[in-house]
Every structure is written in structure tokens, then in C-alpha cells.
Amino acid sequence: MASYARRLQKIGSSMLVSLPANWVRQNQLKKGDTILMELGNDNSIAILPSKDRNGIIKGFGIDYPARVIDILINQLFGAYLLGYDNIRIKARAPIDYEDREKILNATGKLVGLEIVDEDSLNINFQFLIDVSSLDAAKILRRMNAIIKGMMRDGLRAIVSKDTKIIKLIVRRDDEIDRQYFLLVRLIRSAMLNQRIARKLNLSNIDILDYRVAASHLESAGDYVSEFSSSIPKLWGTGIGNEIVEAGMIVDSMQHRSISAFIAKDNLLSEEVVKMYLKFSDLSVSIKEKSTKGSQYDPNISILNCVYSMDRIAKCWVDIADLVKPGYPKSQI
User: Fold this and answer.
1) How many other C-beta atoms lie within 10 A of the C-beta of residue 331?
2) pLDDT of residue 56
């Protein structure tokens, strides 16, 4: 990052400062052009060329056919996550119907990416959401709410023995992935464009922390889905109440962990760690009971269930650990 020193000059009642010649030349500015000035919360001033108003990134082209269609889909996801607003698949020969269906099914996980033009040789996608209108904290809360609902429905299914609930839980994991990809795209855009970062009110360390927190939330969604899939094997083991009790502790950890992260609340962060110790004690007790055995082979099923819950609980501990010591403490 280049640094320039300038002396303030007073002309009439205004204070003026000259702009670096290299910066003016690189942004192709001339006399009479408009520039944008933004005031930061840290009392800094950012000067931006008006052409950078939206921070739009140029389009990205992907050639078809690819050696493997999954490689092409990975390129599409990569371009989306890097913040490209326009993505075009260009073919030398008509795109195969099955490949086209795989591409369209995959892009269903990419929020805001829509087809704006399509023929036998091209599929043009465009990201139709204004990045500056997005809020990282809101997306994180949305992911959190979906996972919380999945976990609570799983605990209900242990008691109700309703297989339909379990199927719905597993399906909701796809929505977590959609929100995760959107959040990663937003974070990467903020890393590449400081103007976006300022609008989101995110410092460099905040951007990094949100990326890590999003990853833990996405993993937690997978673990909750895994936990829910193992629930039918618990029916008849006689240990469902203990599993539900442990699950409620994990649920409380989740609430405090996300609240601590967003509010930067050190007190809540410490509570999450204490609650994990309580969960660990209860899980040891459950494991001991599981060794008694029965015709339903609870040893394996119960251990797998506890293991999944432990991985979920550790995600909440890891997110709580992102809260730096010394941050303000508040009450929920």
C-alpha cells in the first residue's frame, strides 16, 4: 500500500489537498470528473473514483466441454465465491442436456445467481443482488436459525419417533449451504473491495472472523443432519431422555455462542465453554449406560449419536473462541 504526504492549502474558506498523480492516471480521471469521499468510523477519509460506485467485478468465462462436468461446476462455484457478477459458460458445440441439468441443479445452491440469457451454446448467469444491501450478521443469524430449528426438531423426533421430521431436517441442510456460499461471497468481496468492507462496517479481523464462523456453522449443519439420521436407531434403547437433555445443553450453547460472536460479548463466550464441560460430563454418563447393551445394539447407535452432538458442541465453542478477551460484556 502506497503512502503519500500532502500539505493542506487554504483557498477562500475551503481546505484543499492535491491527489497523487499516479492514482489519477490509473483511474483515468480528468478535470471535471467527480470523486466520492467516505468518512470512516475511525475518523479516516476514503477517496474513490465515481466509476467504482458499485465495485462491480468484470465477467468470468468458462469453456465447455470440460474434461469432467464436475470440474466445470467447481469453476462456476469458484467464480461465484470470488464475487464475479457475470459468469458465462461458452460452448464449442451444443451443451449436452444432462450436463445442462447438472449445471442448473448445482446453481440452485447459489443465492442471487440467475440465468439472464441462454441458448444451445451459451448459459449466461448474473448475480442480481446489490452486495452493499447485504448484511453479514443477518446471513449468519439466518444460518444459525435454520440449524437451531433442525436441532430442536431432531430432539422432538427422539420423543415422537416421527420419521417425516427427520427427512425434513436433512433437506434443510441444503438451505444452510446456500446461505454459507452467499456469506463467503460477501466476505471475499469485502476483502477485495475496501469500500464494501466499510459499508458492512467490517475491519480486516472481522472479515477473517466471519469467514471462520461461517465455516463452523456450515459444519454444524452437516453434523446436525448426521445426528438426525442416527435418531431412529435410538428408539427403544431407553436412553432417549438423556440424549434430549444433552441436546438441550448443546442448543443453549448455540444461542450463547452466536450471540457472543455478533455482540463481541466475552461473558457469553465464557459461558459457552462452561456449558461444554457440563455437556461432556453428561455425555460420559450416557456412554457408560450404552455399554449395557440390548437387542437394538445401543452401544454403536448411542455412541455415534453422542459423537455427533459432541462435534456440534465443539463448533459452538470454536465460534465463541473468536470473541477476543477484553471485548465489552453485555447481557442477553
Assistant:
1) 7
2) 47
CATH of domain 60-129: 3.30.110.140
The predicted pLDDT at position 52 comes to 47
Distance CA 116, CA 127 (A): 10
Q: Which helix (H) or strand (E) holds 14?
A: strand 14-16
Walking along the chain (332 residues) 10 residues at a time, the average pLDDT comes out as 76 81 81 74 70 58 92 96 93 94 95 95 94 90 96 92 89 94 93 80 88 96 93 81 94 96 93 96 87 57 90 97 70 49
Query: How confident is the model at residue 25, as a pLDDT?
Result: 82
Q: Is 270 exposed, middle or buried (0-12, 13-18, 19+ CB in 10 A)?
A: middle
SS3 category, 311: helix
Architecture of domain 133-320: Up-down Bundle (1.20)
- Integer Cα distance of 199 and 264 in angstroms: 19
DSSP state letters, 179-199:
HHHHHHHHHHHHHH-HHHHHH
Q: What is the pLDDT of residue 326?
A: 60
The domain over range 9-52 is classified in CATH as 2.60.40: no
Are the CB atoms for 239 and 298 separated by under 8 Å? yes
- With a CB cutoff of 8 Å and minimum separation 6, the contacts of 141 are 258, 262
Q: Do 224 and 150 form a contact (C-beta atoms < 8 A)?
A: yes
Which residues on neighbouring strands pair with residue 49, listed in sequence order?
A: 35
The x, y and z cell numbers of residue 27, run together, are 483511474
pLDDT attached to residue 301:
80
Domains in the chain: boundaries: 9-52, 60-129, 133-320
| SS3 call for 139 | helix
- pTM, two decimal places: 0.78
Backbone angles phi, psi at 282, to 5 degrees: -70, -40
**Can you read off the three cell numbers belonging to residue 152?**
430442536
Strand 60-64, strand 113-118: pairing: unpaired
Give the integer Cα–Cα distance in Å for 163 and 153.
Answer: 11
Greatest C-alpha distance within the chain: 92
